[in-house]
Amino acid sequence: MTSTATTDFDVLVIGAGISGIAAAYHLKKHRPSATFAILDGRTEIGGTWSLFNYPGIRSDSDMPSFGFGFKPWTDKKSIADAHIILDYLNETVDENGIGAHVRFGQKVLAADFDSAAARWTVTARDVETGDLTEYTANFVYSGTGYYNYEAGYTPEFDGIESFGGRVVHPQHWPADLDYTGKRVVVIGSGATAVTVVPNMAKTAGHVTMLQRSPSYVFSLPAEDAIANTLNKLVGPDRAYPIIRRKNIALNRGVFKAAMRFPAAVRKLLIADVKRRLPKGYDVDTHFSPAYNPWEQRLCMVPNGDLFTAISAGTASVVTDHIDHFTETGIALKSGRHLDADIVVTATGLDLLPFGGITLSVDGTDVDVADTVVYKAMMLSGVPNFVFAIGYTNIAWTLKVDLICEHMIRILDHMDQHGHHTVTPTPADPIIERGPLLDMSSGYVQRKIATFPKVGTSGPWGLTMAYEDDVVRLRHGAVTDDALVFSADVPALAG
Question: Which residues, by range, are in coiled-coil regions (predicted)?
Fold first, then answer.
């Protein structure tokens, strides 16, 4: 058990969400003698899954893929509600003795690497007292994700201050919000909007999804009949690897088909929407995007719940542009007015690299936007630092597991060869660069320039392809010309 007085560790893990829990599991299992702590600014584990509480919040990937590779997903729901996912994460923490390593209420502000000592100094602020604590470690793993936990993104709407109702953002859903019988307008067309609308429609007077432009929306069964049958026949431990392989293959197959035959996949997706909505519904206006499938994430609705709500008349879709807010609702540029008691701004996330932590090496700040990503998990010129950003076209956790495995292999290699530091270093400092996330989604385009870049080839290249990363991260060599290992004895060790 980690002593609460201890501030020096082999590895510091930042974030107690899925990515941080995965790192803790791999450290405990594969490096049992290593000391580590998890720092998190919140008061409970779970990250996204304990922060977001909007109606209907659920996974947007199938859970046998989204769950950890080392812990079978046994719930009947394949598209699972947040509270079920949170139970799964808490079970993982309890079963593996991870809880004793977590320091809650520790908001990490900065991390500086001392090259002479081969040591990070990480500064964290106690969110209750404001006191600062300095932690030290040889290695830092960032599991902070890629968005701002403090606030979501809301555009500036003309006249919003004149609105007499209530405006809420899904990222900070008020516990006292009663929308029973109310007129609700949900602004947005992404994954959050298509989740909120049918769930609010169950008790609201009416819910309108107001979008500037449509997204691809497709329906999947909330339960996976094959997975549930296999779990009964052979048990979760034996069934889980089979189910994961099946789901990964299906997801990758759909994505590859969309890349190779975008027009055909588009036609199939829109045809499915038409099949689920009343005859004559204006699908071309409301559910036919101007972009190709997977240029932005597909929006998944379990059991077609959004289409059911629209067909029942409890929800509707309006495709238009906001002109201004009024006291009683929203005036649209078409001249139409939407009456509303509550407006939900499902307008996206605010991206933020590494949780806003200031990184520095030997006292010099690192401009993360000027760094290049090595194997999608380390930063050029930054020693002993690993970060986890999952896939955007398949389950996030698949990438996280591979990154954690590779980090363990790097740490083992350093121990075996007496290395104290490892630094990704491009042979060509003028390496051609591109965005870390190559998607046209508004939330990505607004802030992706502030993130590290990717190269175009070798270990600096990035493809959102699980099968490629299995080869590179699970089976590929730890050493290559792009990694510089140091065997110098740290100054503090004498």
Answer: none
Instruction: Tell whether 183 and 306 lie within a shared domain.
Output: yes
Report strand pairing: 206-211 vs 183-187: parallel
The DSSP secondary structure of 40-101, one letter per residue, reads: -SSSSS-THHHH---TT-B-SS-HHHHS-TTS---SSBSS-BHHHHHHHHHHHHHHTT-GGG
Residue 2 lies in a domain: no
Which range marks the domain in which residue 356 is found? Answer: 8-150+350-493
Residue 70, phi then psi, degrees to nearest 5 = -95, -5
Kindly state the percentage of the chain with pLDDT values over 70: 98
The whole-angstrom separation of Cα 398 and Cα 412 is 22
130 and 244 share one domain: no
Can you tell me the mean pLDDT for 16-34? 97
Residues constituting the chain = 494
Residue 442 belongs to some domain of the structure: yes
Of 139, 134, 122, 115, residue with least CA distance to 362:
115
Q: What gap in Å lies between CA 15 and CA 46, rounded to an integer?
A: 9
Domains held by the chain: number:
2
Question: Do 172 and 81 belong to one domain?
Answer: no
Residue 488 above 80 pLDDT? Answer: no
Band of pLDDT at residue 493, cut at 50, 70 and 90 = very low
| Contact present, 344 and 384 (Cβ < 8 Å) | no
